[in-house]
Write a structure and sequence with these properties.
- With about 90 residues, the chain is mainly α.
- The protein is built from three helices and two strands; from the N terminus they run αααββ.
- The chain has a domain of about 40 residues: Histone, subunit A (Orthogonal Bundle), CATH 1.10.20.
- A hairpin with a 2-residue loop joins strand 1 and strand 2.
């Protein structure tokens, strides 16, 4: 795939990116390197390789969900509380 300034501007518009002419040259160079790397990856023979479903061989230790009253214990650890609610600082005005 070839990448020129027209395609770069279209990608930048779709991604809502803005950069100056100097940044445009750097971005064009970087994207060409990225596409070159992807083309190298496509050359790798993966015919007999099974797809991964996870990057680790760990097995999750699930537990049964049990209904209980944990709010009282949680509120004991809260720095501030108001009845059965956690009090937190105001973040929206």
């Amino acid at each position: 795939m070839t990448l020129d300034k027209t395609a770069l501007k279209k990608i930048a518009q779709l991604a809502k990116l803005e950069f100056d002419p100097n940044g445009e040259e750097r971005m064009l160079k970087d994207m060409k390197q990225l596409l070159s790397w992807v083309e190298q990856l496509q050359e790798v023979d993966t015919q007999n390789v099974e797809p991964l479903t996870s990057m680790t061989s760990e097995i999750n230790a699930f537990r049964d969900d049990k209904v209980g009253r944990h709010l009282d214990q949680s509120l004991k650890n809260a720095p501030q509380q108001d009845g059965s609610f956690f009090k937190v600082p105001k973040v929206v005005e």
